[in-house]
Amino acid sequence: MQIKFCEISTILWVISPIATVLSLSLTSDEISSELIRNEDNLKRIEDIKHNIFFSDELSSSEYHDDLDMEMGIDGNYEWDLLIFTQQWPVTTCYHWREEDKNHACKLPADKEFWTVHGLWPTKKGHFGPSFCNKTAKFDIHLLDEIKDRLNHFWPDIDGESKGDWLWKHEWLKHGTCAAELEELDNELKYFSQGITWREGFELSKMLDSAGIHPDSNNTVVAIHTALLNGLGKNPSIHCLYDSKTDISYLEEIRICFDKELNATDCDGVKHGDAVSIDYPGGTVITNCHISKPVHYPSLVPNKRRQAEKKWKFPIVNLYKLLQFIMWFTL
Ligand SMILES: *[C@@H]1O[C@H](CO)[C@@H](O)[C@H](O)[C@H]1NC(C)=O
Ligand SMILES: *[C@@H]1O[C@H](CO)[C@@H](O)[C@H](O)[C@H]1NC(C)=O
Ligand SMILES: *[C@@H]1O[C@H](CO)[C@@H](O)[C@H](O)[C@H]1NC(C)=O
């Protein structure tokens, strides 16, 4: 293992352009087959490298605009799956505050509490669609009967935003597309479904039962194994990477559902900067560092004095990621 890693690592050092990997004359069949396997990973990374976007919907609006152009092109609003995204509010809040020192957040009163971010219809291999009904409006009063539960399970972490900003955004952007299904064809049904899934898929419990508690560091593979055991389906696992501290924080876990609203594997779903990475024993869909600890914070780290925009996603550091993959697929 060690030796192979060194050899492949050396090869990577020598040839940085991925395209040249294939033209290498390899020294042994074994390494050759490793590289071919790794080629699959490399290609997937290449494919998504051009589509990097901030999975975090709270990011600046220019990203939304770019994204929205790609979604729902020519009124084609077809979709295959729903991505049900839960977020870890501590990480979302940390990111939010670090992005701009004037940002404040509202955290749920409950500790160890994952909240709903959204329910996103998606076409395999594409982003979106989104904003499927341009004439739709959002009426908060249609949600009166579940308002308390929404505040509990689906709160807006942005401390400054007006009460219904997140729900309005989610409904107009994603709910209007989900509404194609009779089960989700109005605000009440759509948001109720999110709450039902949040209650039914308790990430804290799944992680806890694998010994993964807040305020710990774990590999993404350990997190993946825990979730796979809990869900029976392949989710995607998302991190935010703070380049100032070189720490990856667990941020979102996405579970996919088919149009019968049954949980299904997220394979084939485009998740921004996340890629499928094979490891001995499985395939994890993630943007987290594969060979570095992922921090699952219990408290929002202290505010730093100079809040600069230094957040990056691990994939941005393509070279580093390649190394992880090379290391991990050995
Ligand atoms: C779009 O939304 C409007 C307002 O809610 C509704 O009347 C209309 O039926 C919707 N259109 C489609 C195609 O769902
Ligand atoms: C997790 O990792 C971070 C960053 O290296 C470190 O500061 C922290 O003390 C670690 N936490 C635990 C519980 O090991
Ligand atoms: C979806 O779940 C229902 C039960 O909730 C089941 O009857 C149905 O067969 C499932 N569909 C698929 C495609 O697995």
Automatic annotation (TrEMBL):
It is found in: Endoplasmic reticulum lumen; Lysosome; Secreted. GO terms for molecular function: hydrolase activity; ribonuclease T2 activity; RNA binding. The gene is 106090437. The active site is at 117, 170, 174. This is Uncharacterized protein. Gene3D superfamilies: Ribonuclease T2-like. PANTHER family: RIBONUCLEASE T2. CDD domains: RNase_T2_euk. One of its GO terms (biological process) is RNA catabolic process. Belongs to the RNase T2 family. Residues 1-23 form the signal peptide. Keywords: Disulfide bond, Endonuclease, Endoplasmic reticulum, Glycoprotein, Hydrolase, Lyase, Lysosome, Nuclease, Secreted, Signal. GO terms for cellular component: endoplasmic reticulum lumen; extracellular region; lysosome. It catalyses: an adenylyl-uridine-RNA = a 3'-end 2',3'-cyclophospho-AMP-RNA + a 5'-end dephospho-uridine-RNA; a guanylyl-uridine-RNA = a 3'-end 2',3'-cyclophospho-GMP-RNA + a 5'-end dephospho-uridine-RNA. Its main location: endoplasmic reticulum. PROSITE patterns: RNASE_T2_1 (PS00530), RNASE_T2_2 (PS00531).
